[in-house]
Specification:
This protein has helices spanning 35-49, 56-61, 66-69, 129-133, 153-160, 169-173, 175-178, 192-198, 201-218, 258-271, 288-291, 294-303, 318-321, 348-355, 360-363, and strands spanning 2-11, 14-20, 24-28, 80-87, 92-101, 109-118, 121-126, 163-165, 222-229, 235-241, 250-252, 277-280, 311-314, 331-335, 342-344. It is α/β, with parallel strands linked by helices. A 6-stranded antiparallel beta sheet has the order 2-1-4-5-6-7. The protein has a 6-stranded mixed beta sheet with strand order 8-12-13-3-14-15, sandwiched between helices. The longest helix has 18 residues, at 201-218. The radius of gyration is 22 Å and the shape is globular. The relative contact order is 0.15.
Length: 380
Amino acid sequence: MLFSRIELKNWRNFRHLDVALHETTYVLGPNASGKSNLLDAFRFLRDVSKSKGGGLQTAVAERGGLGKVRCLHARRDPEVSIAVDAKDDERSWRYVLGFRSEGKGAQRIIVSREEVWRDTVCLFRRPTAADKSDVAQLTQTYLEQIQANQDFRDLAEYLASTTYLHLVPQLLKFADKIGGQRLADDPFGQGFLEHLARTPGKTRDARLRRIEKALTLAVPRFEELKFEKDELGHPHLKARYHHHRPNAGWQSEDQFSDGTLRLLGLLWSLLSGDSLLLLEEPEISLNDSIVKEIPLILKRAQQSKKSRRQILVSTHSEALLSNPGIDGRGIVLLIPGPEGTTARTVLPDEQALLRAGLSVAEVLLPKTRPSSVEQLGLSL
């Protein structure tokens, strides 16, 4: 299944957004323009879709409440809404969710609009007559209710399986020392090793062999990668680097460089699952020569899988966007303005420049730079 479009109203930075999506989509924009918030719209639908530990109320609460989610430019319109179009091999889908504060009493979050379309048929439209007679029903979406989503469960399960990765190396290296409660779905990698431990052995070893091959090309003197458990049963990754003594040169994950861990996490996420994958600034901690190859890594990972997965990447990396293999149809450019951020895809004249051989970094990245950035060094 692939998402072909997303529409947002009053969602965080976006008073209104309507943009097409590609199989691999790169989201570009200046700092604070809403790159992370655009990806978070899909995470929000994932959190709503969870039949356990999720739902509309939890998804809003985990983001600090409706006041933190609703666009500051919304003014009189109280509704926040997210709509997505998707396609699979057999049919097309459209899901629309609007929600707002009840405006009285406990100030509950209620569904103001919910629709599911399969091809050209509307399966339902809320609020229903039953909802209006019992407003408490509007505190839950049909998306999160197993008994209500049977006619569109394929879509609900696909939304619920969305994967987000923004691995923070320090959380992985020092997970035991840091302790504390981990966020649901562990987006920052604190439980990455436990995730590897839960993966069936043959599957885990096959993926690690492929990652090992890639790391030998990207990490100087790297030779071998393996998974093992210590005497207390704690999982670890071990890497062997070239050394004049045959049995020396082994390091555990807490000795890996930040870049090695980020690249390892990226490669693992590409090889595991076929759900929507959200990658936030994958270039962080990586050498520019490696960053430039990320689009090719994504493309090859897609070609090697039986079922291709959709990938959304937020970035402002010149090295990454200088890769000539990026399809201009998969670019979304965010444009901040006085009424919030808008978005657009590549214009015909820009597409012509890309076909002529210029890179996305040359054609579009300059349009994300603040007009007065040259003054920054003189501002203090």
